[in-house]
Write a structure and sequence with these properties.
155 residues
């Protein structure tokens, strides 16, 4: 089986959007051909969140692959994280809606076991929103540092 992806603690991270040194950046670019999926992978890695990329999911009539199969190491809960990145395309929108229904048929519900982000040509997820999403779902249960605000798990 696949192992949880984890970079060593203390891996140098810069403050720019892409976040990693050139050698790590090159490795991530090879593994994540879609630009925003690479950014999501970098965010998960930088925050120490274990994940599996393109993890197989057995739906009722086919086997698909979730973009990110993510473990909250504080609660032990796993999440299916789908990034729907071409919402300007009508066929893609229909396929995305069907994929969401397929998760629901397995009992994997949006907002509980299924985490989703969406983007189109003129609307991309902000790094602030991505950071919040990671903290809310994948780091819930993490002890807060003095003065740090952890997002409430209830919306």
């Amino acid at each position: 089986g696949k192992t949880w992806t984890k970079l060593p603690v203390g891996t140098p991270v810069s403050m720019n959007l892409f976040g990693f040194t050139s050698s790590i950046m090159k490795e991530l670019k090879e593994r994540f051909p879609k630009e925003l999926e690479k950014i999501i992978a970098e965010k998960l890695t930088a925050m120490g969140i274990p994940y599996k990329y393109e993890y197989p999911v057995r739906f009722r009539t086919y086997t698909g692959h979730v973009d990110f199969y993510v473990l909250n190491k504080y609660t032990g809960k796993v999440f299916y994280y789908e990034h729907f990145g071409m919402m300007e395309d009508d066929k893609y929108k229909k396929d995305a809606a069907q994929r969401i229904r397929d998760y629901e048929k397995l009992g994997i519900m949006p907002g509980t076991g299924l985490v989703m982000t969406f983007e189109s040509d003129n609307c991309v997820i902000s790094t602030t929103a991505l950071d919040w999403l990671c903290r809310k779902y994948f780091l819930a249960g993490q002890p807060a540092l003095p003065g740090e605000h952890i997002p409430d798990s209830n919306i």
